[in-house]
UniProtKB/TrEMBL annotation:
GO terms of biological process kind: ribosome biogenesis; translation
Phylogenetic placement of the source organism: Bacteria, Bacillati, Bacillota, Bacilli, Bacillales
Keywords (A to Z) from UniProt: Cytoplasm, GTP-binding, Hydrolase, Nucleotide-binding, Ribosome biogenesis, RNA-binding
Claim: GTP-binding is one of the keywords in the record: yes
Residues bound to GTP: 59-62, 131-136, 175
Name this polypeptide is given: Ribosome biogenesis GTPase A
Gene for this chain: ylqF
Localization in the cell: Cytoplasm
UniProt subunit comment: Interacts with ctc. Interacts with the immature 50S ribosome subunit. 2 molecules of rbgA bind to one 50S subunit.
Function: Required for a late step of 50S ribosomal subunit assembly. Has GTPase activity.
CP-type G domain ranges (all copies): 15-179
GO cellular-component term (any): cytoplasm
Record bears the keyword Hydrolase: yes
InterPro entries assigned to the protein according to its UniProt record, in alphabetical order: G_CP_dom, GTP-bd, GTP-bd_ortho_bundle_sf, GTP-bd_ribosome_bgen, GTPase_MTG1, P-loop_NTPase
Species per Swiss-Prot/TrEMBL record: Anaerobacillus isosaccharinicus
Amino acid sequence: MTTIQWFPGHMAKARREVTEKLKQIDVVFELVDARVPLSSRNPMIDVLVSHKPRLILLNKADLADPYITEQWSRYFQGKGFKVISIDSQTGKGTEKIPTVAKELAVDLLEKLKAKGMKPRAIRALILGIPNVGKSTLINRLAKKKIAKTGDRPGITKQQQWIKVGSELELLDTPGILWPKFEDQIVGLRLAATGAIKDEILDFQDVAVFLLKYLKEQYPKPLMERFKLTEINEDVIELFDAIGRNRGLLMSGGYIDYDKAAELILREFRSCKIGKISLEKPE
Ligand SMILES: Nc1nc2c(ncn2[C@@H]2O[C@H](COP(=O)(O)OP(=O)(O)OP(=O)(O)O)[C@@H](O)[C@H]2O)c(=O)[nH]1
């Protein structure tokens, strides 16, 4: 996971670097987390890449609620975007990317043709906030390990194009942009997915937020995973029940809330509670 601290200077620099990269490319692949598609978008993305055709990739779809991911696809399509839901780890869905990229660049290809030029490969850039899966997707499309997790704003390296089939080329370094910070709920959603480091937000707060959400939206999977006989309205009671059932006790028989919070977050992130989305379209 990234170590970037997004101070204003770093944001300005990331923005400059992305603007520089955009000059070389035809289409943008905006990568978001399918569990939190709006919270995991950069707040300035629409302004920054307004002049480029864009494909929205709902990544980590293997972890998200398929029914809600479908709703998100329709939501973004309704806003005029092309959308594909993908799992970059296994590659599921990624095979559709070259064809959709070509559809997006149709105007460009027409222009080249009109000028009597040969059609060339479409050039794409992957753009997203930290930890959303940019490197995993680049490696998947390249069919080998290319992107290092050390590729950070500020570390200059020779950029190269990766061939993805015969009609698509991908910049081997992604564009990294900062997440939204202004909204507490956005921060909690990002923290729950692991996009924000656990030291930044109190992880007990994050676990409480998650548990409140799960008890409202996913009571059945929650009960099954933690062998609960009922969903208690009081979150502390829920913590207690989970802690007791898993034997997370301190001396004196008190529940170890730190351990219980850690467990809830870990099991959510590793999909053990189920395929869960933390955000729904309005
Ligand atoms: N389950 C699942 N995990 C994924 C997927 N894509 C990426 N990951 C995991 O998410 C974590 C972050 O992936 P990276 O590819 O390092 O993300 P990044 O956007 O390059 O991150 P930064 O380098 O911090 O900007 C890793 O643990 C990946 O294995 C996916 O589609 N499904």
